[in-house]
Amino acid sequence: MKAKKGWLAATFFAGTLLLAGCGSSKASDQKQDATNHYNYVYVLDPDNFDYTASSKQNNSDVVSNFEDGLLERNPYGKLTGDLAKSWSVSKDGKTYTYHLRKGVKWVDSEGNQHGTVKAQDFVTGLKHAVAAKSEQLYVVQNSIKGLNAYVTGKSKDFSTVGVKALNDDTVQYKLNKPETYWNSKLTYGVMYPVNAQFLKQKGSDFGKVSADSILYNGPYVLANFTSKSVLKYKANPNYWDKSHVYLKTITLTYDDGSNPDGLYKSFEKGNYSFARVYPGSAGYKTVLKQNKNNIIWTSQDSSIFNFTFNLNRQSYNYTSKKTEQQKLDTRKAILNQNFRLAIQFAFNKADYNAQVNGKIGADKGLRNEITPPSFVSINGKDYGTQLQADVANTDFSDIKLADGQDGTYQPAKAKKYLAKALAELKSQGVSGPIHLDLPVDEKASLNLNQAKSFKKSVESTLGKQNVIIDLQLLSDDKFNAATFNATTGKTDDFDLSNASGWTPDYDDPSTYLEIYNPTSGAELFTLGLDPTAKADSSASNAAAIKAVGLDEYGKLLDKAEAINTDPAARYKAFAKAEAWLLNSGITIPVNSGGAGAIVSRVAPLSGPYAPSGIGDGRYKFLKVQKKPVTTAEAKKAKAEWLAKRKQIAQEAATN
Questions:
Q1: Is the CB of residue 563 less than 8 Å from the CB of residue 570?
Q2: Beta bridge partners of 239
Q3: Any idea what DSSP says for residue 299?
Q4: Over residues 261-286, mean pLDDT
Q5: Of 194, 371, 536, 584, which sits with the fewest C-beta atoms within 10 Å of its C-beta?
Q6: How many CA atoms lie within 13 A of 251 on its CB side?
Q7: SS3 state at 414
Q8: Which residues on neighbouring strands pair with residue 89, listed in sequence order?
Q9: pLDDT tens, position by position, 603-638
Q10: Burial of 274 (0-12, 13-18, 19+ CB in 10 A)
Q11: Cα distance between residue 263 and residue 13, in whole Å
């Protein structure tokens, strides 16, 4: 899906913050000659600085460096006080009270002060998020008492919403029901403060992509942004916690992905603090020769990148279909479960992944679930153990779901399901071959190679007489418009897309699974659909939802959401819903972020570790060292990090 904390652009420069920073690829002329500067790349321009509103990660990765919320993630993933110095929870688990740090400054990009952060700023922030029709509202809309009624217009009085400034230094939230994971939602922009006076002054210009459109209370302010050129941040001298801001400047240079080997070359020249390297590329031999003791494989993260089917395609600007009959035949095929599963079982994910990671890393990063297997635990066992048991009575009964292996590539099974699908489709008047349009950014060479790998494995397994993958080679702007930047199901212009991914908003399986809720799902549009709760949802949209059974999926989600005080039972219910989702075949899990090869001068695991929320794009806590990190240094740091994580978990269990 997209870049959302939740929404992620499917590029191959990001996802390595466990050992480094964020990323993409073009040479910067600013050398890495000091340990207080960080230089790398970015792949997609930000298009919105309203941190309460946008859910795309190309925006949140930027503005998360400018703003602080009530809580933040430290380098070990622990939620610690940020703007809140302390907090308490009522006995019934439905009232959270936060006591703010005093004297935290609001500043503009020039460093001029605009007062201090007050409790009322959090009230203003949430009210503004509703007015701005925030893409992030789904995170808290059904959590905070009275918020849904206000958002949907049933109430016109914001004072009925469960957020109150008890005094200048105390803000309180009242929830509809207990949420043991509530605090993990506070690292998301929709819960951030907004200065009311500045908001009124800026009006409709608030949050535009310019340095003066927002106020800053976080570790950095924007120093420069030039579209498709450079993003530069400088440390905020008024920041309340500047002792943990080790980098004075962050400089990110735009890269279109056309020269992935250029990353390493710029690193060697001293231009970059870090570089992703690609065992599947021609330049990797040079990397091995010059830095064989410094190549580090990062860990898998909590993101999921996938293929999604367009279940209700309405836009055909980029297609190889020549007749209306071909469009209709493809639509019917996509709505057929056996056809979707045939595509999945014919897809060689390891070969696809090898286009980036080479044969040595072909299995690294592969993921066969939507929710990572170890995201939560159920009675001492990973969530994935429960999910594996739940798929036993589905078409996935013989599929191994564990990370790091291609669980779904089974050519014989693919042919079996295709035969079933073709028989069913023939009775509906469908004749082959079925053409599936797959958009590809023509300049992003690694993405293109992966698309070609997908085409090869599917067509060779299922036969071109039955299925043809039509690669639609597009400019980056057209590619993003057809996929990543599409905001409704109607504007999705593909039959099948691998353009995006998802990262969790908070620490509960619902953050992965509610995105396809047919009533309110935040990512339904990546399936060519829109939530049925929207007044403008079409008849064809509702028909597609019914055809693939998403209404049944919605009922399973409702059952899980109704369990509030028993985490184990709740997680089991969500695992049952996910088993249904996997078996439907409407989305194909492929790989996570991370699990890539890098060379780096960034101190291992020094940045924030954020398994959910917006935090892994922040440069607070990050340190740069003079010499490249060796594999031995990385291994030692990882062992110490894991030990600290274990200690934190044990302490939390006893509190």
A1: yes
A2: none
A3: P
A4: 94
A5: 536
A6: 16
A7: helix
A8: 96
A9: 999 999 999 988 889 999 999 999 999 999 999 999
A10: buried
A11: 9
Residue 213: both structure tokens together: 């459109």
Mean pLDDT lowest among 7-16, 156-165, 236-245, 420-429: 7-16
Give the pairing type, strands 496-497 and 467-474: unpaired
Written as one letter, the residue type at 147 is L
Tokens of 401: 């779901």
Q: Smallest Cα–Cα separation from 267: which of 275, 257, 259, 278? A: 275
**Residues comprising the chain, all counted:** 655
What is the crossing angle of helices 383-390 and 567-584, to 10°? 50
Amino acid at site 647:
Q
pLDDT: which is higher, 521 or 582: 582
- Terminal CA-to-CA distance of the chain, rounded, Å? 37
In whole angstroms, give the CA distance from residue 367 to residue 588. 10
pLDDT-based confidence at residue 522 (cuts at 50, 70, 90): confident
Query: Which residue in the block uniquely carries the two structure tokens 């309180």?
Result: 172
Q: Which residues pair with 40 in a beta bridge?
A: 252
Strands 500-502 and 7-9 turn out to be antiparallel
β strands within 593-632, DSSP E = 597-600
Q: Are 246 and 36 in contact (CB under 8 A)?
A: yes
281's tokens: 């590329």
137 half-sphere exposure, CB direction, 13 A CA radius: 19
Mean of pLDDT values over 535-557: 88
Alpha-carbon span 582 to 370, nearest angstrom: 8
| Backbone angles phi and psi of 574, in degrees to 5 | -70, -35
Q: How far is CA 487 from CA 140, 483, 528, in A?
A: 20, 9, 10
Helices (H), 508-628: 510-513, 539-548, 550-561, 567-584
